[in-house]
Amino acid sequence: MAAPTTLPSALADAVRDESSLRRFLHGLPGVDQVGVEQRAAGLGTRSIKKASKLYAIDLAISMVDLTTLEGADTHGKVRSLAAKAKRPDPERPGVPKVAAVCVYPDMVKTAADDLVGTGINVASVATAFPSGRSTMDIKLADTRFAVEQGAAEVDMVIDRGAFLSGRYGQVFEEIVKIKQACGDAHLKVILETGELVTYDNVRRASWLALLAGGDFIKTSTGKVQPAATLPVTHVMLQAVRDWKDQTGELRGVKPAGGIRTTKDAIKYLVAVHEVAGPEWLDPNLFRFGASTLLNDLLMQRRTQLDGHYSGPDYVTVD
Amino acid sequence: MSDRITVAKTYKLYIGGKFPRSESGRSYPVTDAKGTFLANAAQGSRKDARDAVSAARKAFAGWSGTTAYNRGQVLYRVAEVLEGRREQFIAEVATSEGVPAKKAQSLVDTAIDRWVWYAGWTDKIAAVLGSSNPVAGPYFSFSTPEPTGVVAVLAPQQSSLLGLISVIAPVIASGNTCVVITSQDRPLPAITLSEVLATSDVPGGVVNIITGRTAEIAPWLASHGDVNALDLTGAPESIRADLERSAAGTVKRVLRNKQNEDFAATPDMSRLRAYLETKTVWHPMGV
């Protein structure tokens, strides 16, 4: 097994072969379920108001991966999404643009053409999203196609079946190969935490993805319930923080699915600040995968600035 | 045996078919006309009003989409449940408004009759207010009344049940949903009405009832971007002009009826008409 980067000796040892990888992942400390849920709930009660809230809203907008992953997607819908990504609230020029637009591979070119020169990345899901049930060749071809079309970020899904049956080496190899196929594109590894069942598994999958070279670890596809939850994101934030402590490298986290309100988004930002650290409060290191969240952020932003409540009639329909 | 100690109640709000506490955690004592303590009521805040508006907006598509006949059936069912709670309403109206039992009884009876009167209107509104319009061309042109949307209702301060029902029933009869700020000092009949609505067939969110200080919550509803109409009946004189001004910012329908409206008098269609928009359709005609 080939480690993607030069790792400190303890981690280099972990990826030497499959049995040492298993030993490493099972040697990770277990997650205190009650503790992490309590801490997540506790941090969720922080009161963020006025100027801090406005700052949090703008930061959250700049972290949004504006997503459309529907079977019914059309080129027209992707173009309107790209327009919204550039100017989320056309009446308010001060609104920051979002971080990326996330689409299926066949829509990448449409989005990329519209976003040239804007600094907004096109992210594409790949590797037989959302189930990941296909052959390695097809997954690699899927990834190469997305990158050729202009995707600067690739969101891959791991083979949860292989992970749950303990074939960690296979999952590791897959991520390494997809990472190579990505070239310069950033790789986000979707763990699909809703299918991993336990926090211990989430921690193992996070470390596995980090060891294999994923630039981001992402909670979910959004197609499985439960999708992103605060405690799961806590566990993943701990993993990237520990990764930085051991290697000095900064890796990102992306919760996706089920984050619909500004209140939720701010809870996540508090978690990022408290668990990982302030340097992760950056669109390069933390993203929200969302479709409806952006409208709520825009409505809340208007409420903060106008002094009265806004409504869905004042933002664009997705 | 010692005298039984009565159970002192602390009531909650009625939002989206549920009975939540006020987000602010506040409550205030409610007294009878003579100042004797009756119960604690939740003191709603602007955030409760905001939650109520979202609940009302969510319920609007379903409620306005039901057939007028079905809406009428649901409202008749409410009248049945009101009738079942008649004694409780009489006691509450008597203590809240400080009127003798006989007078309270007639007020409650009139209130229930008023509800039935509006229930009967649901499937007649389109016939009375709609029209087929003679036009100079080969078109069939017709106009139908459509509900305005989410209505913020400031319930009358004095008439705690008859007035309340006279302002809520016309709003929901035509398919609107509403957020009601009850009488500040006489909220108990409104709270009991929310229990009636929760146990009849009215979908959650169609009527949302908030107790508290009218002058504190009303400005937030008047300026809210997602509220389509405002009933000023229970608004204190001192803030009426301000409420109208901020309502104009989002082009709301505003009903300016006065506090001292005579609710016992036979009603007319004016309250029904206040929350309706006219939709006109031109349909090309064949032979």
Structural summary, described in words:
Chain A: It comes from Lentzea albidocapillata subsp. violacea. Chain A: Pathway: Carbohydrate degradation; 2-deoxy-D-ribose 1-phosphate degradation; D-glyceraldehyde 3-phosphate and acetaldehyde from 2-deoxy-alpha-D-ribose 1-phosphate: step 2/2. Chain A: It is an enzyme of class 4 (lyase). Chain A: One of its GO terms (molecular function) is deoxyribose-phosphate aldolase activity. The complex is a heterodimer of chains A (318) and B (287). By secondary structure, chain A is of the alpha/beta class. Chain A is built from 13 helices and 8 strands. Chain A has a single domain (9-306), classed as TIM Barrel (Alpha-Beta Barrel), CATH 3.20.20. Chain A is globular. The termini of chain A are far apart. The mean pLDDT of chain A is 95. Chain B is α/β, with parallel strands linked by helices and 287 residues long. Chain B has a single domain, classed as Aldehyde Dehydrogenase, Chain A, domain 1 (3-Layer(aba) Sandwich), CATH 3.40.605.10. In chain B, 44% of the residues lie in helices and 18% in strands. Chain B has helices at residues 46-65, 68-84, 86-97, 101-121, 125-129, 162-173, 188-198, 214-223, 237-248, 270-274, and strands at 27-31, 37-42, 131-133, 139-147, 150-154, 177-181, 207-210, 229-231, 253-255, 276-284. Chain B has a 5-stranded parallel beta sheet with strand order 7-6-5-8-9, sandwiched between helices. The longest helix of chain B is centred in the middle third of the chain and has 21 residues, at 101-121. The mean pLDDT of chain B is 95. Classes of the chains: A alpha/beta (318), B alpha/beta (287). The interface between A and B is small, with 9 and 11 residues.
